[in-house]
Specification:
Blueprint: H1 2-25, H2 32-64, H3 73-82
Helix pairs in contact: 1-2
Length: 101
C-alpha cells in the first residue's frame, strides 16, 4: 500500500494541480453560475487529492485487509484466464545481478 501510494503520489498531485488551476480560472468568469461551479470543483478536487487519496483510502484498505482483493466470480475467472495479478511473479531460478569487485 505504501509503495503504491509513493509511486502514484506525484502523478496524482500533478494532475490535481492542473485541474485545480483550470477550475479556479472559472472563478474569474462574469457569470455567477460558472464562477460558483469553478470554485466548487476546485475545492472538490483539492479535497479528493489530499484528504481522500492520502488518508481515507489507505485507512480503508488497512481495515478491509484481504477483502480489498475480492472479485465476483466471473471477474475472478476472467482475471485468472487472462493472467492478470496484483502480485509480481518472481522467478526462483533467476540469479540476482551482482557487481564483481
Amino acid at each position: 500500500m505504501a509503495e503504491g501510494l509513493a509511486r502514484t503520489a506525484g502523478v496524482i498531485t500533478g494532475a490535481a494541480m492542473i485541474m485545480i488551476s483550470v477550475f479556479a480560472a472559472f472563478a474569474l468568469a462574469q457569470v455567477i453560475t460558472i464562477k460558483s461551479i469553478g470554485v466548487g470543483m476546485a475545492i472538490a478536487v483539492a479535497v479528493d487529492a489530499t484528504i481522500i487519496r492520502v488518508l481515507l483510502v489507505p485507512a480503508a484498505m488497512r481495515l478491509m485487509g484481504r477483502l480489498n482483493w475480492w472479485a465476483p466470480g466471473i471477474i475472478g475467472r476472467l482475471v485468472d484466464r487472462l493472467g492478470f495479478s496484483h502480485v509480481e511473479d518472481e522467478d526462483p531460478t533467476e540469479v540476482p545481478l551482482t557487481r564483481s569487485a
